[in-house]
Amino acid sequence: GAVVSQHPSWVICKSGTSVKIECRSLDFQATTMFWYRQFPKQSLMLMATSNEGSKATYEQGVEKDKFLINHASLTLSTLTVTSAHPEDSSFYICSARDVGQGETQYFGPGTRLLVL
Amino acid sequence: GESVGLHLPTLSVQEGDNSIINCAYSNSASDYFIWYKQESGKGPQFIIDIRSNMDKRQGQRVTVLLNKTVKHLSLQIAATQPGDSAVYFCAEIQGAQKLVFGQGTRLTINP
Predict the structure, then answer these.
(1) A60: Cβ contacts below 8 Å, ≥ 6 apart
(2) pLDDT (tens digit, 9 = 90+) per residue, A60-92?
(3) Is the pLDDT of residue B94 over 80?
(4) Of B43, B93, B101, the CB nearest to A109
(5) Residue B40 CA: distances (Å) to CA of A16, A32, A54, A55
(6) Nearest of B107, B90, B91 to residue B99 by alpha carbon
(7) Which candidate in B32, B46, B49 is best for mutational testing of the A interface (most A CBs within 10 A)?
(8) Using an 8 Å Cβ cutoff, are A46 and A36 in contact?
(9) Is beta strand A10-13 parallel, antiparallel or unpaired with respect to A111-115?
(10) Measured in whole angstroms, how far is the alpha carbon of residue B92 from the centre of its chain?
(11) What share of chain A is helix, strand, coil (3-state, %, to 5)?
């Protein structure tokens, strides 16, 4: 099946620093990738939709200047949390749609971010 | 706005019994639903999906039932095993490609 990887799997950073999270589709091309955030014991909330070669579409309430998304190739999207604060601590999960597989989204393993 | 929700936040079953996890949706125009399994500290894993032109779909040990009349979706897991312990989410495709998740049900297996 389609595999999506994320790097790093976990990161601890100081408040005020920026953190970059990578999402890669390993064996398929993904024109669209999605970024979700999940707080403890809660559901996944879509943050933004990333289309290869164009600007990301952010969900209401998500600051585009704080959560920078780049989708420069068909296999890689990055999420940068700028000037991270403790309230940004969360589990960040990406998903990718296989160009040839319709609506199915394949999820990465997630990245746990802890901001001190 | 429209939402996808779950009836029960937790479900505890005996090993070997069948599990039924329920989900209600409010958007009558929804035409594609997916069940995901999420183990602790991991990303969601696709289990099974169903389109609105179907009432039932079966996979390996899992069955999804769709009742459009009452806007209800269920996931049945046969002969539940310890490895089935996880949080289960129903999700709905809204608009062109936006996946909206329900709140999740934690399934625990008693030995």
Answers:
(1) none
(2) 999 999 999 999 899 999 999 999 999 999 999
(3) no
(4) B43
(5) 28, 26, 33, 32
(6) B91
(7) B46
(8) yes
(9) parallel
(10) 10
(11) 5, 50, 45
